[in-house]
Write a structure and sequence with these properties.
By secondary structure, the chain is of the alpha+beta class. It has one domain (about 10-190). The protein contains 6 helices and 7 strands; from the N terminus they run ββαββααβααβαβ. It has helices at about 40-60, 95-105, 110-115, 130-140, 150-160, 175, and strands spanning about 10-15, 35-40, 70-80, 85-90, 120-125, 165-170, 180-185. The strands form 2 sheets. It has a 4-stranded mixed β-sheet. Strands 1-3-7 form a 3-stranded antiparallel β-sheet. Pfam families: DUF3990 (PF13151). InterPro entries: DUF3990. This is DUF3990 domain-containing protein.
Amino acid sequence: MQKLTEGMLLYHGSYTEISAIDLKYSKRTLDFGKGFYLTSSYEQALNYIPSAVKKNIRWRKLPADFKVEDGCISVFRFHPTPELLVHYFETADLDWLHFISANRDDSLFQSLLKEYSSYDIIGGKVADDSTAATLNSYITGEYGNPGSERADNFTISQLLPERLTDQFCFRTEVSIGTLEFVGSERYGDVYQSDFR
């Protein structure tokens, strides 16, 4: 698991540039809960843009004729502060699986939501669209009761955790204050990037 370091570039793929982060627009049911999500992988952020555009068209937040090419990668530079509380899930293990499950369905593993509530940033492997079906099957009990050894082991094996890239959830205003907006790039202009 890559750790955040001073000056590190982080990327956010979306249908629009995000230069000023407002946590009130974040969703609670994402992997690490409510927050602003970034990755150290330019390619991961780039690959997320078509999905973000399609979802927002489906949810009628964008017009039906919005073009994927107009999506953006927003780029931020990280500047840590001493008071920042950061937790890293080093691998896609049972703690990671249970915490993601708790954020997606708050009837599961409720103690974990409380345990991690004080962290400003949580980092770990991303559970992306390619893993969503497996996670949903786990959460709904298709592999056995969530938290059972059988269901846990089967789910982790299906996720192929060694193939997953990273994500960082900036959960508090303190953490948002550590991000310097560097610029953005249209999806359609990606191969002329200075940020890769």
